[in-house]
Each structure stands twice: as C-alpha cells, then as structure tokens.
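step 3/5: co-fold with zinc ion
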Amino acid sequence: MLGKFVIKGIIEVKTGLRIGGSTTGLKIGGVDLNVITDPEGKPYIPGSSLKGKMRSLMEHKFNKVREDGKVHYCTNDENYKNCPICKIWGISPTEKDMNINIPIHTRMLVRDIPLDESSVKNFKLELQYTEIKVENVINRKKGCAESPRQIERVPAGAKFGSTNGEPIEMIIYTVYENDDIDLFKYVFEAMELLEHDYLGGMGSRGYGKVEFKNIKIYWNKKENYESGKLNEKEINNGFHTPSEIVKNFENIKVNIDIK
Ligand SMILES: [Zn+2]
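step 4/5: write tokens
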C-alpha cells in the first residue's frame, strides 16, 4: 500500500430519490413502497447502491456489459491488468472461472451516506423526512388510471453526506501502485456519468437525478499513517465538482506526494 485518498462530498437530490427498503415489516402510513432507512427511520444511500451504480455506468463506458446482464469481471491476468473497472471496483473472490495470479485489490470503498436532516427540516412533507407520490399505471384500453401506488421518496432539495451542511467522508480509495493515481480520475468520471443518469429506482419516471457538491479530497501516504500525522488540507485546488476535478486532474495530481 502506498497511501489513501479520502473523498468528502455532498449528494444533492435534484428530483425525488427512491432507494427501496425492505418489503417485509409494516406498511408505514399506507405507503406501498418504502425507502430504505437506518434503524432510526432516517433515509440513507447505501454505499453498495452508489458503488454498484457507478460501476455499471463505467461498464457501459468501457463496453464491458455482459450479455447476461451480470456484473463484469476479468478472468485472466492480462485483462485484469488493463481493466480500470476490476481494479477500482474489485472482483468478488467467489467468481469460479477466474484465473488471476497477480494480487487482486479493491481500490474503492463507499460508505453508507446519511441524510442531512437540516436539509429537509423546513420542507412540508407527508412523512418526517420523505414525501409520498402517487404513481398511476394507465390502462391502454380504457384510457384511465388504475392501481395507483403510493411511493415514498426523498424530496428534491434533500442533501446526503453532510452534517449541518459540512461534507463528511463518502469514499476511500487505496493506492497500491503508482498507476492507481491515474485510475483515481475514473472515480470522478463515474460521478459525472451518474449526474447524467439516475440513482435508485424509477429513473424512467424522472426519479433519482443527483448532483455531487462541495467535494474535498485528502491524501495520506503510508508514512502519514505510521507517524499519525494525517493531512487535514484538501488537495483539490478549489475544484469541487466531478467535472471540474476531471478537467483539472493533472493540475490536482501535482499535490499528490507519493514518495
Ligand atoms: Zn475487468
């Protein structure tokens, strides 16, 4: 290991966000589809949802979408060495047809991202943190709406990943070899692609547009951990959105002291 990046940042919901909760348990307030919440009933974005969506968008970008629709993974050393997706997002050790003999590392991990309660406290909502939207299906023959469903969603304007507006830790990216610094740029490319796609469910109905705001990147090399002197200064040169960071990545790279 050479070091780690910590990315802090805020995810702002631009159109109602629906990441589904468990269907077991009680229906709350007559809602048919609930959003996922923590044990205190507060919505959050599971790290696995965000990470998986970013991976899938990058699989499309690199033309690595499998015929069967399952997650892409490389099966030999040569492909793995040249595959940003498997190197950044990882490969499950249980994949059976894998014949990779060089070390496999997952470089990126994504935290569960809590809702910033202060971002919704002045909203008029049906439930404490969420709104209820009724979705109809139009009967093609009769031309009328039928089987309306009550859908819970996090309202536009809500923010995740901050406490009272201050960004908190969202992503950790571990650098194992020098080339991993260049691969790090793909994390922000995946964020750009997500901003032009959707997070959670019902994207084709307009749900799930999000934006990343106030991104802060911190770098610590191995020696920082050994001495306990962790850097508290961001290295992103005042570039706080995914597209600004991608555009100025070479400029930001100068701040990464790896030796
Ligand atoms: Zn791969």
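step 5/5: annotate
The pocket of zinc ion is lined by residues 72-74, 79, 83, 85-86 (CB under 6 Å).
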